[in-house]
Amino acid sequence: xxxxxxxxxxxxxxxxxxxxLYCFIGVFIGTLVGxxxxxxxxxxxxxxxxVTLSGTPESGIIMMAGIYYGSxxxxxxxxxxxxxxxxxxxxxxxxxxxxxxxxxxxxxxxGISALGSFVAGTFALVALMLIAPSLAALAVRFGxxxxxxxxxxxxxxxxxxxxxxxxxxxxxxxxxxxxGLIGLDSITAQPRLTFGRIELIDGIGLVPVVMGLFGVAExxxxxxxxxxxxxxxxxxxxxxxxxxxxxxSAGPITRGTILGFFLGILPGGGAVVASFASYALEKRVxxxxxxxxxxxxxxxxxxxxxxxxxxxxxxxxxxxxxxxPNVVMALLLGAFVIHGLQPGPLLITQNxxxxxxxxxxxxxxxxxxxxxxxxxxxxxxxxxxxxxxxLFPMILLFTIIGVYxxxxxxxxxxxxxxxxxxxxxxxxxxxxxxxxVLAFVxxxxxxxxxxxxxxxxxxxxxxxxxPLRLRWISALCLLLALLLLIVPLLPSLRKKRELVALDExx
Length: 506
What we know:
Mean pLDDT: 82
Radius of gyration: 22 Å
Order of helices and strands: HHHHHHHHEEHHHHHHHHHHHHHH
Distance between the termini: 41 Å
Structural class: mainly alpha
Protein backbone atom coordinates (compact mmCIF):
# COMPACT_ATOMS: atom_id res chain seq x y z
CA UNK A 1 0.00 0.00 0.00
CA UNK A 2 2.89 2.34 0.76
CA UNK A 3 4.07 2.01 -2.83
CA UNK A 4 0.65 3.01 -4.17
CA UNK A 5 0.54 6.02 -1.83
CA UNK A 6 4.01 7.06 -2.97
CA UNK A 7 3.11 6.63 -6.63
CA UNK A 8 0.03 8.79 -6.03
CA UNK A 9 2.29 11.44 -4.47
CA UNK A 10 4.57 11.20 -7.51
CA UNK A 11 1.76 11.68 -10.00
CA UNK A 12 0.54 14.64 -7.97
CA UNK A 13 3.91 16.26 -8.64
CA UNK A 14 4.38 15.06 -12.23
CA UNK A 15 0.90 16.14 -13.35
CA UNK A 16 1.46 19.77 -12.37
CA UNK A 17 1.22 21.82 -15.60
CA UNK A 18 4.77 23.17 -15.36
CA UNK A 19 6.22 19.68 -14.80
CA UNK A 20 4.21 18.22 -17.71
CA LEU A 21 5.64 21.01 -19.88
CA TYR A 22 9.22 20.32 -18.77
CA CYS A 23 8.66 16.58 -19.29
CA PHE A 24 7.46 17.20 -22.84
CA ILE A 25 10.38 19.55 -23.56
CA GLY A 26 12.78 16.91 -22.24
CA VAL A 27 11.44 13.96 -24.26
CA PHE A 28 11.04 16.12 -27.37
CA ILE A 29 14.64 17.34 -27.19
CA GLY A 30 15.74 13.80 -26.35
CA THR A 31 14.03 12.44 -29.46
CA LEU A 32 15.50 15.29 -31.50
CA VAL A 33 19.10 14.70 -30.39
CA GLY A 34 18.57 10.99 -30.87
CA UNK A 35 17.40 11.57 -34.44
CA UNK A 36 20.15 14.03 -35.40
CA UNK A 37 23.50 12.22 -35.75
CA UNK A 38 26.48 13.74 -34.03
CA UNK A 39 24.81 15.34 -31.02
CA UNK A 40 23.73 12.77 -28.43
CA UNK A 41 22.16 13.11 -24.96
CA UNK A 42 25.38 14.10 -23.19
CA UNK A 43 25.90 17.15 -25.39
CA UNK A 44 22.23 18.14 -25.11
CA UNK A 45 22.10 17.67 -21.33
CA UNK A 46 25.32 19.60 -20.75
CA UNK A 47 23.97 22.39 -22.95
CA UNK A 48 20.70 22.56 -21.03
CA UNK A 49 22.16 22.07 -17.54
CA UNK A 50 22.05 25.83 -16.82
CA VAL A 51 18.37 25.90 -17.83
CA THR A 52 17.52 23.75 -14.80
CA LEU A 53 18.30 26.76 -12.60
CA SER A 54 15.28 28.61 -13.96
CA GLY A 55 12.69 26.31 -12.39
CA THR A 56 12.13 24.04 -9.42
CA PRO A 57 14.42 21.03 -8.81
CA GLU A 58 11.57 18.73 -9.86
CA SER A 59 11.07 20.51 -13.19
CA GLY A 60 14.76 20.67 -14.06
CA ILE A 61 15.56 17.05 -13.25
CA ILE A 62 12.37 15.80 -14.95
CA MET A 63 13.52 17.57 -18.12
CA MET A 64 17.08 16.21 -17.91
CA ALA A 65 15.83 12.67 -17.34
CA GLY A 66 13.46 13.04 -20.31
CA ILE A 67 16.35 13.97 -22.59
CA TYR A 68 18.20 10.79 -21.65
CA TYR A 69 15.51 8.16 -22.09
CA GLY A 70 13.99 10.13 -24.99
CA SER A 71 17.25 9.89 -26.95
CA UNK A 72 17.05 6.09 -26.67
CA UNK A 73 13.80 6.27 -28.67
CA UNK A 74 14.99 8.78 -31.25
CA UNK A 75 18.30 7.09 -32.02
CA UNK A 76 16.60 4.15 -33.71
CA UNK A 77 14.96 6.40 -36.35
CA UNK A 78 18.30 7.48 -37.78
CA UNK A 79 19.74 3.99 -37.57
CA UNK A 80 16.85 2.44 -39.50
CA UNK A 81 16.29 5.11 -42.14
CA UNK A 82 19.81 6.46 -42.73
CA UNK A 83 22.11 3.71 -41.42
CA UNK A 84 23.79 6.27 -39.16
CA UNK A 85 23.31 5.81 -35.39
CA UNK A 86 21.74 8.91 -33.87
CA UNK A 87 23.47 8.02 -30.62
CA UNK A 88 25.83 5.31 -29.44
CA UNK A 89 23.21 2.92 -28.07
CA UNK A 90 21.60 2.61 -31.51
CA UNK A 91 24.71 1.37 -33.32
CA UNK A 92 23.48 -2.22 -33.25
CA UNK A 93 20.05 -1.22 -34.63
CA UNK A 94 21.73 -0.20 -37.90
CA UNK A 95 22.68 -3.80 -38.68
CA UNK A 96 19.19 -5.22 -39.22
CA UNK A 97 17.05 -2.08 -39.01
CA UNK A 98 18.45 -0.50 -42.16
CA UNK A 99 18.26 -3.80 -44.02
CA UNK A 100 14.55 -3.97 -43.17
CA UNK A 101 14.14 -0.41 -44.47
CA UNK A 102 15.86 -1.32 -47.76
CA UNK A 103 13.43 -4.24 -48.07
CA UNK A 104 10.49 -1.84 -47.77
CA UNK A 105 9.82 -2.74 -44.12
CA UNK A 106 10.90 0.52 -42.48
CA UNK A 107 7.43 0.88 -40.94
CA UNK A 108 7.46 -2.39 -38.93
CA UNK A 109 11.10 -1.75 -37.92
CA UNK A 110 10.23 1.70 -36.55
CA GLY A 111 7.02 0.40 -34.99
CA ILE A 112 8.59 -2.53 -33.15
CA SER A 113 11.43 -0.25 -32.06
CA ALA A 114 9.03 2.28 -30.50
CA LEU A 115 6.70 -0.32 -28.96
CA GLY A 116 9.58 -2.45 -27.65
CA SER A 117 11.14 0.66 -26.15
CA PHE A 118 7.82 1.50 -24.47
CA VAL A 119 7.48 -1.98 -22.95
CA ALA A 120 11.08 -1.95 -21.72
CA GLY A 121 10.82 1.57 -20.35
CA THR A 122 7.63 0.69 -18.44
CA PHE A 123 9.21 -2.45 -16.96
CA ALA A 124 12.29 -0.48 -15.87
CA LEU A 125 10.10 2.06 -14.11
CA VAL A 126 8.11 -0.60 -12.23
CA ALA A 127 11.35 -2.31 -11.19
CA LEU A 128 12.85 1.04 -10.17
CA MET A 129 9.77 1.76 -8.07
CA LEU A 130 10.00 -1.61 -6.29
CA ILE A 131 13.77 -1.96 -5.88
CA ALA A 132 14.89 1.58 -5.08
CA PRO A 133 13.28 1.95 -1.60
CA SER A 134 14.70 -1.40 -0.40
CA LEU A 135 18.18 -0.63 -1.76
CA ALA A 136 18.09 2.83 -0.19
CA ALA A 137 17.20 1.28 3.18
CA LEU A 138 20.25 -1.00 2.85
CA ALA A 139 22.51 1.84 1.70
CA VAL A 140 21.76 3.82 4.87
CA ARG A 141 24.05 1.34 6.65
CA PHE A 142 26.95 2.06 4.25
CA GLY A 143 29.97 3.80 5.70
CA UNK A 144 32.83 5.68 4.00
CA UNK A 145 34.67 2.40 3.28
CA UNK A 146 31.70 0.91 1.37
CA UNK A 147 31.14 4.08 -0.63
CA UNK A 148 34.82 4.31 -1.54
CA UNK A 149 34.91 0.70 -2.72
CA UNK A 150 31.69 1.04 -4.74
CA UNK A 151 33.01 4.13 -6.52
CA UNK A 152 36.38 2.50 -7.17
CA UNK A 153 34.59 -0.52 -8.66
CA UNK A 154 32.45 1.77 -10.84
CA UNK A 155 35.51 3.49 -12.28
CA UNK A 156 37.31 0.21 -12.94
CA UNK A 157 34.24 -1.35 -14.62
CA UNK A 158 33.92 1.74 -16.80
CA UNK A 159 37.53 1.53 -17.92
CA UNK A 160 37.17 -2.21 -18.51
CA UNK A 161 34.19 -1.70 -20.82
CA UNK A 162 35.67 1.23 -22.71
CA UNK A 163 36.66 0.99 -26.34
CA UNK A 164 40.28 0.18 -27.08
CA UNK A 165 43.14 0.20 -24.63
CA UNK A 166 42.29 -0.20 -20.96
CA UNK A 167 45.55 1.54 -20.08
CA UNK A 168 44.37 4.65 -21.93
CA UNK A 169 41.02 4.51 -20.15
CA UNK A 170 42.74 4.21 -16.74
CA UNK A 171 44.98 7.15 -17.63
CA UNK A 172 41.89 9.23 -18.50
CA UNK A 173 40.27 8.23 -15.20
CA UNK A 174 43.39 9.33 -13.29
CA UNK A 175 43.36 12.68 -15.10
CA UNK A 176 39.69 13.08 -14.18
CA UNK A 177 40.40 12.40 -10.48
CA UNK A 178 43.23 15.00 -10.48
CA UNK A 179 41.00 17.60 -12.15
CA GLY A 180 38.36 16.93 -9.50
CA LEU A 181 40.91 17.81 -6.78
CA ILE A 182 41.33 21.39 -8.04
CA GLY A 183 40.01 23.96 -5.57
CA LEU A 184 39.65 23.97 -1.80
CA ASP A 185 40.42 20.81 0.16
CA SER A 186 37.11 19.45 1.45
CA ILE A 187 38.56 18.73 4.92
CA THR A 188 41.32 21.31 5.50
CA ALA A 189 39.93 24.08 3.24
CA GLN A 190 43.41 24.65 1.80
CA PRO A 191 43.63 25.61 -1.91
CA ARG A 192 45.03 22.87 -4.18
CA LEU A 193 46.27 23.01 -7.78
CA THR A 194 44.94 26.55 -8.20
CA PHE A 195 48.30 28.02 -9.33
CA GLY A 196 47.34 31.29 -7.71
CA ARG A 197 44.23 31.73 -9.92
CA ILE A 198 41.25 33.01 -7.95
CA GLU A 199 38.91 31.51 -10.61
CA LEU A 200 40.04 28.00 -9.61
CA ILE A 201 39.31 28.34 -5.88
CA ASP A 202 35.92 26.68 -6.35
CA GLY A 203 37.36 24.14 -8.78
CA ILE A 204 36.54 23.56 -12.44
CA GLY A 205 32.83 23.49 -13.24
CA LEU A 206 31.22 20.32 -14.60
CA VAL A 207 29.30 22.23 -17.29
CA PRO A 208 32.30 23.71 -19.17
CA VAL A 209 34.23 20.42 -18.94
CA VAL A 210 31.40 18.32 -20.35
CA MET A 211 30.36 20.87 -22.97
CA GLY A 212 33.95 21.07 -24.15
CA LEU A 213 34.72 17.33 -24.21
CA PHE A 214 31.43 16.29 -25.79
CA GLY A 215 29.82 19.34 -27.41
CA VAL A 216 32.74 21.31 -28.90
CA ALA A 217 34.97 18.28 -29.52
CA GLU A 218 32.09 16.43 -31.20
CA UNK A 219 31.48 19.36 -33.55
CA UNK A 220 35.20 19.66 -34.38
CA UNK A 221 35.37 15.91 -35.11
CA UNK A 222 32.26 15.95 -37.30
CA UNK A 223 33.36 19.00 -39.29
CA UNK A 224 36.25 17.12 -40.85
CA UNK A 225 34.15 14.06 -41.66
CA UNK A 226 32.03 13.84 -44.76
CA UNK A 227 28.99 11.93 -43.57
CA UNK A 228 26.82 10.68 -46.38
CA UNK A 229 23.16 10.61 -45.41
CA UNK A 230 21.06 8.51 -47.75
CA UNK A 231 17.63 9.28 -46.33
CA UNK A 232 14.89 6.96 -47.54
CA UNK A 233 12.39 8.99 -49.52
CA UNK A 234 9.79 6.28 -49.93
CA UNK A 235 6.56 6.67 -47.99
CA UNK A 236 6.62 4.80 -44.70
CA UNK A 237 3.50 2.71 -44.21
CA UNK A 238 2.25 0.05 -41.80
CA UNK A 239 3.95 1.27 -38.66
CA UNK A 240 2.18 -1.33 -36.55
CA UNK A 241 3.92 -4.74 -36.77
CA UNK A 242 1.84 -7.66 -38.00
CA UNK A 243 1.12 -10.88 -36.09
CA UNK A 244 4.26 -12.62 -37.36
CA UNK A 245 6.44 -9.67 -36.37
CA UNK A 246 4.96 -9.64 -32.88
CA UNK A 247 5.49 -13.39 -32.52
CA UNK A 248 9.13 -13.06 -33.57
CA SER A 249 9.73 -10.01 -31.36
CA ALA A 250 8.04 -11.03 -28.10
CA GLY A 251 10.96 -13.15 -26.88
CA PRO A 252 13.72 -10.66 -27.83
CA ILE A 253 11.82 -7.78 -26.19
CA THR A 254 11.42 -9.79 -22.96
CA ARG A 255 15.02 -10.96 -22.87
CA GLY A 256 16.38 -7.54 -23.91
CA THR A 257 14.32 -5.81 -21.22
CA ILE A 258 15.55 -8.00 -18.36
CA LEU A 259 19.16 -8.09 -19.58
CA GLY A 260 19.28 -4.35 -20.24
CA PHE A 261 17.80 -3.43 -16.88
CA PHE A 262 20.40 -5.35 -14.87
CA LEU A 263 23.28 -4.14 -17.06
CA GLY A 264 22.04 -0.58 -16.57
CA ILE A 265 22.25 -0.96 -12.79
CA LEU A 266 25.89 -2.08 -12.85
CA PRO A 267 28.52 0.65 -12.33
CA GLY A 268 30.08 1.43 -15.67
CA GLY A 269 27.30 -0.35 -17.55
CA GLY A 270 24.81 1.39 -19.73
CA ALA A 271 22.64 1.39 -22.82
CA VAL A 272 25.44 0.69 -25.29
CA VAL A 273 26.73 -2.37 -23.48
CA ALA A 274 23.13 -3.58 -23.06
CA SER A 275 22.27 -3.23 -26.77
CA PHE A 276 25.41 -5.10 -27.87
CA ALA A 277 24.83 -7.84 -25.30
CA SER A 278 21.19 -8.23 -26.34
CA TYR A 279 22.09 -8.55 -30.02
CA ALA A 280 24.71 -11.19 -29.24
CA LEU A 281 22.20 -13.07 -27.06
CA GLU A 282 19.49 -13.05 -29.72
CA LYS A 283 21.89 -14.28 -32.37
CA ARG A 284 23.01 -17.07 -30.06
CA VAL A 285 19.51 -18.30 -29.09
CA UNK A 286 18.05 -17.97 -32.60
CA UNK A 287 17.38 -21.16 -34.59
CA UNK A 288 18.26 -19.23 -37.77
CA UNK A 289 21.26 -17.02 -36.84
CA UNK A 290 22.12 -16.58 -40.52
CA UNK A 291 19.13 -14.19 -40.82
CA UNK A 292 20.86 -11.65 -38.58
CA UNK A 293 22.43 -8.85 -40.58
CA UNK A 294 19.91 -9.38 -43.39
CA UNK A 295 16.85 -7.74 -41.88
CA UNK A 296 15.88 -9.88 -38.87
CA UNK A 297 13.31 -8.03 -36.77
CA UNK A 298 14.69 -9.76 -33.65
CA UNK A 299 17.92 -7.79 -34.20
CA UNK A 300 15.91 -4.57 -33.83
CA UNK A 301 13.48 -5.53 -31.07
CA UNK A 302 16.02 -6.97 -28.60
CA UNK A 303 18.67 -4.18 -28.62
CA UNK A 304 16.06 -1.39 -28.61
CA UNK A 305 14.32 -2.92 -25.61
CA UNK A 306 17.69 -3.44 -23.91
CA UNK A 307 18.95 0.13 -24.27
CA UNK A 308 15.70 1.60 -22.96
CA UNK A 309 15.60 -0.78 -20.00
CA UNK A 310 19.24 0.08 -19.25
CA UNK A 311 18.39 3.79 -19.31
CA UNK A 312 15.77 3.16 -16.59
CA UNK A 313 18.03 0.85 -14.58
CA UNK A 314 20.80 3.47 -14.49
CA UNK A 315 18.65 5.63 -12.20
CA UNK A 316 18.81 3.06 -9.37
CA UNK A 317 22.49 3.52 -8.29
CA UNK A 318 22.19 7.29 -8.73
CA UNK A 319 18.97 7.74 -6.76
CA UNK A 320 19.69 5.22 -4.00
CA UNK A 321 23.48 5.33 -3.59
CA UNK A 322 24.33 8.74 -5.02
CA UNK A 323 26.77 7.05 -7.43
CA UNK A 324 26.34 7.75 -11.17
CA PRO A 325 26.91 4.55 -13.19
CA ASN A 326 27.67 6.41 -16.44
CA VAL A 327 28.42 9.86 -17.83
CA VAL A 328 24.78 10.78 -18.41
CA MET A 329 23.94 10.02 -14.80
CA ALA A 330 26.97 12.08 -13.77
CA LEU A 331 25.36 15.05 -15.50
CA LEU A 332 22.09 14.32 -13.76
CA LEU A 333 24.02 14.28 -10.48
CA GLY A 334 25.30 17.73 -11.46
CA ALA A 335 21.71 18.91 -11.83
CA PHE A 336 20.94 17.65 -8.30
CA VAL A 337 24.01 19.40 -6.88
CA ILE A 338 23.15 22.68 -8.63
CA HIS A 339 19.88 22.67 -6.68
CA GLY A 340 21.60 21.82 -3.40
CA LEU A 341 20.37 18.22 -3.35
CA GLN A 342 22.38 15.07 -2.75
CA PRO A 343 21.02 11.86 -4.29
CA GLY A 344 21.50 8.86 -2.06
CA PRO A 345 19.78 6.70 0.53
CA LEU A 346 18.20 9.68 2.31
CA LEU A 347 16.70 11.20 -0.84
CA ILE A 348 13.56 9.05 -0.72
CA THR A 349 12.80 9.96 2.91
CA GLN A 350 13.90 13.61 2.85
CA ASN A 351 12.56 14.53 -0.61
CA UNK A 352 9.85 11.98 -1.42
CA UNK A 353 8.01 14.39 -3.72
CA UNK A 354 11.16 14.76 -5.84
CA UNK A 355 11.97 11.03 -6.03
CA UNK A 356 8.47 9.81 -6.76
CA UNK A 357 7.75 12.82 -8.98
CA UNK A 358 10.67 11.85 -11.23
CA UNK A 359 9.45 8.23 -11.46
CA UNK A 360 5.89 9.30 -12.26
CA UNK A 361 7.13 11.75 -14.89
CA UNK A 362 8.95 8.88 -16.60
CA UNK A 363 5.64 7.02 -16.98
CA UNK A 364 4.15 10.13 -18.58
CA UNK A 365 7.28 10.65 -20.68
CA UNK A 366 7.14 7.12 -22.07
CA UNK A 367 3.55 7.68 -23.26
CA UNK A 368 4.60 11.00 -24.83
CA UNK A 369 7.48 9.27 -26.60
CA UNK A 370 5.18 6.63 -28.05
CA UNK A 371 3.06 9.43 -29.55
CA UNK A 372 6.11 11.38 -30.75
CA UNK A 373 7.78 8.41 -32.40
CA UNK A 374 4.94 6.77 -34.30
CA UNK A 375 2.48 9.37 -35.69
CA UNK A 376 5.17 12.05 -36.14
CA UNK A 377 7.72 9.88 -37.91
CA UNK A 378 7.39 12.00 -41.07
CA UNK A 379 8.54 15.10 -39.20
CA UNK A 380 11.66 13.36 -37.92
CA UNK A 381 12.47 12.18 -41.46
CA UNK A 382 12.40 15.80 -42.64
CA UNK A 383 14.70 16.85 -39.79
CA UNK A 384 17.24 14.31 -40.96
CA UNK A 385 17.74 16.51 -44.03
CA UNK A 386 18.90 19.51 -41.93
CA UNK A 387 22.36 20.47 -43.28
CA UNK A 388 25.29 20.21 -40.88
CA UNK A 389 26.66 23.62 -41.92
CA UNK A 390 23.57 25.10 -40.21
CA LEU A 391 23.39 22.67 -37.29
CA PHE A 392 26.97 22.79 -36.01
CA PRO A 393 27.38 26.61 -35.73
CA MET A 394 24.10 26.68 -33.79
CA ILE A 395 25.44 24.04 -31.39
CA LEU A 396 28.64 26.05 -30.82
CA LEU A 397 26.68 29.25 -30.24
CA PHE A 398 24.38 27.65 -27.69
CA THR A 399 27.26 25.96 -25.86
CA ILE A 400 29.01 29.30 -25.37
CA ILE A 401 25.79 30.98 -24.22
CA GLY A 402 24.96 28.04 -21.91
CA VAL A 403 28.40 27.98 -20.26
CA TYR A 404 28.45 31.74 -19.69
CA UNK A 405 24.90 31.80 -18.30
CA UNK A 406 25.63 28.95 -15.89
CA UNK A 407 28.17 31.02 -13.93
CA UNK A 408 28.28 34.50 -15.53
CA UNK A 409 32.02 33.94 -15.83
CA UNK A 410 34.01 34.35 -19.05
CA UNK A 411 36.73 32.11 -17.57
CA UNK A 412 34.37 29.12 -17.89
CA UNK A 413 34.04 29.83 -21.62
CA UNK A 414 37.84 29.63 -21.93
CA UNK A 415 37.79 26.37 -19.95
CA UNK A 416 35.16 24.96 -22.32
CA UNK A 417 37.17 25.92 -25.42
CA UNK A 418 40.32 24.40 -23.89
CA UNK A 419 38.57 21.12 -23.11
CA UNK A 420 36.99 21.17 -26.56
CA UNK A 421 40.45 21.21 -28.16
CA UNK A 422 41.71 18.61 -25.66
CA UNK A 423 38.69 16.39 -26.40
CA UNK A 424 39.30 16.69 -30.14
CA UNK A 425 42.96 15.68 -29.73
CA UNK A 426 41.91 12.81 -27.42
CA UNK A 427 39.63 11.42 -30.12
CA UNK A 428 42.48 11.60 -32.64
CA UNK A 429 44.69 9.44 -30.43
CA UNK A 430 41.99 7.00 -29.32
CA UNK A 431 41.36 8.29 -25.79
CA UNK A 432 37.77 8.07 -24.54
CA UNK A 433 36.41 11.15 -22.70
CA UNK A 434 33.82 9.19 -20.68
CA UNK A 435 36.24 7.78 -18.02
CA UNK A 436 37.63 11.28 -17.50
CA VAL A 437 34.21 12.86 -16.91
CA LEU A 438 32.96 10.14 -14.59
CA ALA A 439 36.21 10.22 -12.60
CA PHE A 440 35.97 14.02 -12.48
CA VAL A 441 32.53 13.73 -10.87
CA UNK A 442 33.37 10.81 -8.59
CA UNK A 443 36.90 12.00 -7.71
CA UNK A 444 35.98 14.41 -4.88
CA UNK A 445 33.53 11.87 -3.38
CA UNK A 446 36.12 9.10 -3.77
CA UNK A 447 38.79 11.16 -1.98
CA UNK A 448 36.39 12.34 0.72
CA UNK A 449 35.24 8.82 1.61
CA UNK A 450 38.81 7.47 1.51
CA UNK A 451 40.02 10.11 3.97
CA UNK A 452 36.99 9.71 6.22
CA UNK A 453 37.53 5.94 6.38
CA UNK A 454 41.23 6.39 7.21
CA UNK A 455 40.49 9.06 9.82
CA UNK A 456 37.93 6.81 11.53
CA UNK A 457 40.35 3.87 11.50
CA UNK A 458 43.36 6.02 12.48
CA UNK A 459 45.16 5.25 9.23
CA UNK A 460 44.53 1.49 9.19
CA UNK A 461 44.18 0.40 5.52
CA UNK A 462 42.62 -2.91 6.51
CA UNK A 463 39.45 -1.03 7.46
CA UNK A 464 38.26 -1.54 3.86
CA UNK A 465 38.15 -5.34 4.24
CA UNK A 466 38.20 -6.12 7.98
CA PRO A 467 36.28 -7.22 9.95
CA LEU A 468 34.93 -9.24 7.04
CA ARG A 469 31.45 -9.78 8.54
CA LEU A 470 30.97 -5.99 8.56
CA ARG A 471 33.03 -5.02 5.52
CA TRP A 472 32.07 -7.83 3.13
CA ILE A 473 30.45 -5.43 0.62
CA SER A 474 33.57 -3.26 0.54
CA ALA A 475 35.86 -6.30 0.30
CA LEU A 476 33.79 -7.81 -2.53
CA CYS A 477 33.84 -4.56 -4.54
CA LEU A 478 37.61 -4.21 -4.16
CA LEU A 479 38.13 -7.86 -5.12
CA LEU A 480 36.02 -7.45 -8.27
CA ALA A 481 37.89 -4.25 -9.15
CA LEU A 482 41.23 -6.04 -8.73
CA LEU A 483 40.11 -8.95 -10.94
CA LEU A 484 38.98 -6.55 -13.69
CA LEU A 485 42.38 -4.87 -13.57
CA ILE A 486 44.22 -8.20 -13.83
CA VAL A 487 42.08 -9.86 -16.54
CA PRO A 488 43.24 -7.64 -19.45
CA LEU A 489 46.85 -8.46 -18.55
CA LEU A 490 46.33 -12.16 -19.28
CA PRO A 491 47.40 -12.82 -22.91
CA SER A 492 44.73 -15.44 -23.60
CA LEU A 493 41.91 -13.22 -22.35
CA ARG A 494 43.32 -10.01 -23.76
CA LYS A 495 42.97 -11.36 -27.29
CA LYS A 496 39.35 -12.28 -26.69
CA ARG A 497 38.34 -8.97 -25.11
CA GLU A 498 35.67 -7.33 -27.19
CA LEU A 499 35.87 -3.67 -28.12
CA VAL A 500 32.66 -2.23 -26.76
CA ALA A 501 31.70 1.42 -27.33
CA LEU A 502 30.87 3.47 -24.23
CA ASP A 503 27.49 5.01 -23.19
CA GLU A 504 28.74 8.46 -23.56
CA UNK A 505 25.71 9.56 -25.61
CA UNK A 506 27.75 10.40 -28.68
